[in-house]
Write a structure and sequence with these properties.
Aspartate Aminotransferase, domain 1, about 40% helix, three-stranded antiparallel β-sheet, Aspartate Aminotransferase, domain 2
Length: about 400
């Protein structure tokens, strides 16, 4: 499937940019549910499901090792597809189990010592936070960069904190509980200026925004397959810039795929991003993720970003008309994640009522995002994750249910 129009007006969806009818025809779940939980896990297109099932059928008939050997080219496709999407080389791509797996493999390979400083933003997810807090227990100094009053990372405050003691800058490009898109490229430029490693969590950005690691300036980039990429669960990607490999500490995540046992008392890590992989993988998911990436690229990430942005803005606009509803998103630039609360109703209650009417959303709480929801004094929010295959009718279904509450 391809976009039928290559031109773009910033902030405006041209009617024929994306063949939404075809995208929905490829997405069987659209027949039964208004799926607005793409920030949690998207509905995969049938091409992805078919690729996964077809591979499992080969395993069923041939055996796991034999199927992997038989499908070598299809398994390797994930590296070239992800490299095309991120504007990097295939040997800078590692296949992982999810975004947290990618983040931890990168983070654990960075040789942080007592007294080293790490700068981070307010949008870190809980699994990232656990790694950072464990580092703090070892004497690494954590410094949370404040947001601007509008809700994105404050670049001037970042500049004041950057010096030669900063060894790592961590940023989550889009918070899982906030619609703001942080200026990731500007952060990358500043991290390079002091020689700090830059670890970017693009878990919620991949699949809804164009991502170019050269523009972003990141040394690592992590994302999952199941969210806006519309890939299988249990899949992820880690980008690791080639120039950083020699600076890395050996990761504790090592097996015969990531290293070679060269003598009884020696081993050598793989010279490229394969050092971050285990030999036992989700092989069916690996093939499915490559298909999902190619599917998104065939539509075009810029048209996807434009349509997602317009649909999300329309949902925010309609929600703001409802009495008792407060949209909780921040940021000058906002994503397809729309969060809100409803007076007198807990977010889980709103989620349940929407679910009973065939509308999927989620209700993340402060334990998932203490630096975001916790700092803002919010226990939880209702979260809709809008994607390009969603429609205005589905948005109106959500609004109508909330209005009745």
């Amino acid at each position: 499937m391809s976009a039928t129009c290559s031109g773009r007006l910033r902030g405006v969806i041209l009617p024929d940019m994306i063949d939404v009818a075809q995208a929905r025809a490829d997405t069987l779940g659209c027949e039964s549910v208004a799926h607005l939980n793409n920030a949690g896990s998207s509905l995969p297109p049938r091409q992805v499901v078919d690729a996964v099932v077809d591979y499992l059928r080969v395993e069923e008939m041939m055996g796991g090792y034999e199927a992997a050997a038989h499908a070598g080219a299809e398994l390797d496709a994930v590296y070239s597809s992800a490299a095309h999407m991120l504007n990097c080389r295939p040997d800078e791509i590692a296949f992982t189990a999810n975004a947290s797996d990618s983040w931890w493999r990168a983070f654990s390979s960075i040789a942080l010592q007592r007294g080293d400083r790490v700068l981070l933003g307010h949008s870190e997810f809980q699994s990232n936070a656990f790694g950072l807090l464990q580092a703090a227990e070892r004497g690494v100094l954590l410094d949370v960069v404040p947001n601007t009053p509008t809700g994105e990372i404050d670049l001037e405050a970042l500049d004041r904190r950057l010096n030669d003691d900063v060894k790592l800058v961590c940023l989550t490009q889009i918070s899982m509980a906030n619609g703001s898109i942080h200026p990731a490229a500007a952060v990358g430029e500043r991290a390079r200026s002091v020689g700090a490693t830059y670890l970017l969590d693009a878990c919620q950005a991949a699949g809804q925004l164009p991502l170019d690691v050269e523009e972003l300036g990141c040394d690592f980039l992590a994302f999952t397959g199941r969210k806006f990429m519309r890939g299988p669960r249990g899949t992820g990607i880690l980008y690791a810039r080639e120039s950083i490999h020699d600076r890395l500490h050996p990761s504790p995540f090592v097996d015969g795929r990531s290293a070679e046992w060269t003598s009884p008392m020696t081993y050598e890590l793989q010279p490229d991003a394969r050092r971050f992989e285990f030999g036992e993988q989700n092989f069916a998911g690996k093939i499915g993720l490559a298909v999902a990436i190619d599917y998104a690229l065939s539509i075009g990430l810029e048209p996807i970003a434009a349509r997602v942005g317009e649909l999300a803005a329309e949902l925010r606009r309609r929600l703001r008309y409802l009495p008792g509803v407060e949209v909780r998103d921040e940021g000058q630039h906002q994503s397809g994640i729309v969060t809100f609360t409803l007076d007198g109703h807990a977010p889980l209650e709103v989620q349940g009522e929407l679910g009973r009417h065939g509308v999927n959303v989620s209700a993340p709480g402060r334990r998932n995002a203490q630096l975001d929801l916790g700092v803002r004094g919010l226990d939880a929010v209702v979260r809709a994750g809008i994607h390009y295959y969603n429609t205005e009718d589905e948005i109106q279904r959500l609004v109508a249910v909330v209005a009745t509450m």
